[in-house]
Amino acid sequence: MASGGGNNRNGTHRNSLKGTTTTSTASTDKPLSVNSNPSKPAFKNKSSPLTGASSGLRKSSPGSLGGGAAKDDAGVPGRVRVAVRLRPRNAEESVADADFADCVELQPELKRLKLRKNNWDTDTYEFDEVLTEFASQKRVYEVVAKPVVEGVLDGYNGTIMAYGQTGTGKTYTLGRLGEEDTANRGIMVRAMEDILAEVSPEIDYVLVSYLQLYMESLQDLLDPTNDNISIVEEPKSGDVSLPGATLVEIRDQQSFLELLRLGEAHRHAANTKLNTESSRSHALLMVHVKRTVKGREAAHSSDNGNSTSMARSLRPPLVRKGKLVVVDLAGSERIDKSGSDGHTREEAKSINLSLSALGKCINALAENSAHVPVRDSKLTRLLRDSFGGTARTSLVITVGPSPRHRGETASTIMFGQRAMKVENMLKLKEEFDYKSLARRLDIQLDKLIMEHERKQKAFEVEIERITAEAQNRISEAERNYADAVEKERLKYQKDYMESIKKLEEKWMMNQQNQGDERKMVHIAEEVAEVKKLLSKETSLRKAAEEEVDNLKSQLAQLKMSEASANSEILKLRKMVEDEVCQKEKLEGEISMLQSQLLHLSFEADETRKRLDRGGPGKVPGGLDSPVSQVRSQLKDSGNGEKASVAKLFEQVGLQKILSLLEAEDADVRIHAVKVVANLAAEETNQQKIVEAGGLKSLLMLLGSSEDETIHRVAAGAIANLAMNEKNQELIMSQGGISLLSTTASHAKDPQTLRMVAGAIANLCGNDKLQTKLRGEGGIKALLEIVKCGHPDVLAQVARGIANFAKCESRASTQGSKTGRSLLIEDGALPWIVQNANSDASPIRRHTELALCHLAQHEVNAKDMISEGALWELVRISQDCPREDIRTLAHRTLASSPDFIAGLKRLRIDY
Ligand code: ADP
Ligand code: MG
């Protein structure tokens, strides 16, 4: 319930007919001023009379989809809708009231209810919907609850509430489970059926809590031990939450019915223990629905033809969160205050408290009163969004027909009439789901890694298989060759032995038959035969040699095929290497995505904050040093972002982030340099960044990039790193001064000059680097920068000069420096004198300090007197708000002979 003067309401209320109510039966025939109410046609809807603003609301939804969550702040007006339901006569009434007419008469087609005052007089009232004793549960649901449930599914909060005397059918309307006959199902059961049919179980969720409010104590009906739940209101959004209440996720209708049964059993047990009835307590069912908006990506990419797939996958899903509250109120009849009900007076007061507070709030809202007493009871605190808030609210008031309860019936009707005047401002609850985007990117990364590993494994197996096959073939060929050679060798050996044996036998025989001429002839024959045998042997041997050659050529062929197998292996190896390259590229892309995601969430967060602060026109102002600005930006982005920077740091690795500084795509380079600058603002990261070569890359960017944003952010990061002595030496040795002064000479944005001057100012504070810094033109660069005239820039220059003068003074005191100040040598004195009395206090403070340091050393005195510094020193010694500087100036003037002479000459009485 919105408190105060009703800024959400436009003051055009629908008037009840009570104002024009006729007081006699006769005058009811006069036409009632049904159309006197201008807002009525706008709310009227053919299919469901209680949908009211829903048609307007639906039209506004697509607009808000395209424009994002932040633009939908205005809301849509939506009046509280009220239906009246009449219970049929029950058995007791049929007997007891048999001779009497009902005290109410309904005219559903005119949406009117007539309340009999006496035999000749009735009052007439008009409602958004009039439900007779014959109205089915299905019709009641469709008319009262369905539009509210649809709103919840679209991301709006919704309330359905029943009000009326005990026994008139509140629980019948809201809470019936319809186990014996499904036609009897009440609003809770039907609402959950509609919700479950619309949500997708994989990406959406439905969470339910069920509570009872009795005597201002809130009890958990799903966990009876939890009987004192506290209500937490978020001051900014006005959202109400119950952190102590049990939340059960509902995935199907059956588990919801079991939950309702369990809640009912606990309610019964609790009421028995407290010795009361459920009619004395309020029951609240809360259903939280989160849905991911579908089709949004498709709509966007067709809007913008050149959006890349990378940008698409970076877009976080949009979620809508609606909360449905169903309230079965305690009976509206007054409790006997005498205590005859078994209660003391105090208890009776406490029991009545929430309901009467609700009545008071509705009266205040209906009358547009300046104060709405929302905080008077727990019920009104719980329902602050339902009346005068951002929820769509539907109220059903239940009445009985009996003339004996005319008084209670009349007061119920009046409650309904006043509630009809309450105007809500419906608001879409929509936000980006960054967590699920990050989860999606993680899953994508895991998939790519798995795919790569799978391919690599397959290649390795293939290589092993080919190698083994080649090895097998080679050893088989070698075996065959050895077998064949061995076989041939054995065959020859055998043949040879046999031939020798035969020759020996023949020779023996020849010996024996020597001298026998007859036998000579025979021998000649024998010899011829032997010759024949020999030639046969020779040809056999030739054949064997051919066989050997053949085998040799086969072996050579096998060797060749082995070589080709080897080249195949080499090719596969190359493919594996290509895969590895591809994987590295993908990883680079992923880290870039993550850096962009980080940047996007920074920007989203900043935009949100800027909106919170009151619009984009505001610029964060006047910080003393760029370091503190970067720091504060990082601080602003909150712990969540810090954690995500650290997480990104871990996941992506510094090396990869730094490598993105040299990316081809200018946008990526800008994102990367911003991420590095954010990291460099944290002292803990600085060492790591320098060790990984980040400082070198940042300096290189100053030289190589043309983009001023890069120059500004890189110079800011260098200024941060330049706070450390070791890094100062590194920056100097890598040509930092000349890079920074070139950057300054091209800069158009004073913020760039401020970062550059800040970096040089830090370097000026290093005792060891004085001569080198001056030699490379550091002081001249600062004097060039002052031409821009911006006070923030001048403050940094003054800080640098003061740092330099302080180090120089220290060196002169220690004797390691002689001669005039290098600042005077480089012509800085006129500027210092000119700004020593600047209106901007940081500039004045630093220049005053610089003058005091310079004045410490007699060698500088003549120049200082001739440049007019003496006047300034006198002024400082008298007016400077800092006592130490005042004293220093005074002491210096009093002790330097040159200054004393100068004062005398100028006739300054000191
Ligand atoms: P309440 O919750 O307002 O105290 P109940 O819902 O418990 O009232 O209803 C009281 C009795 O009236 C119950 O027995 C219920 O079944 C009956 N009843 C209520 N409304 C109707 C109706 N529209 N049709 C039939 N019976 C009804
Ligand atoms: Mg009841």
3D structure, described in words:
By secondary structure, the chain is α+β, with helices and mostly antiparallel strands. Among the domains are: about 80-295 and about 315-350 and about 385-430, Kinesin (3-Layer(aba) Sandwich); about 435-505; about 660-790, Leucine-rich Repeat Variant, CATH 1.25.10; about 810-910. The protein has 34 helices and 17 strands. The strands form 4 sheets. Strands 2, 6, 7, 8, 9, 12, 13, 14, 15 and 17 form a 10-stranded mixed beta sheet that branches. The chain is flat and about 180 Å long. The two termini are about 75 Å apart. Bound molecules: adenosine-5'-diphosphate and magnesium ion (MG). Adenosine-5'-diphosphate (ADP) binds next to helix 5. Interacts (via C-terminus) with NEK5. One of its GO terms (cellular component) is spindle microtubule. This is Kinesin-like protein. Belongs to the TRAFAC class myosin-kinesin ATPase superfamily. Kinesin family. Ungrouped subfamily. Keywords: ATP-binding, Coiled coil, Cytoplasm, Cytoskeleton, Microtubule, Motor protein, Nucleotide-binding, Repeat.
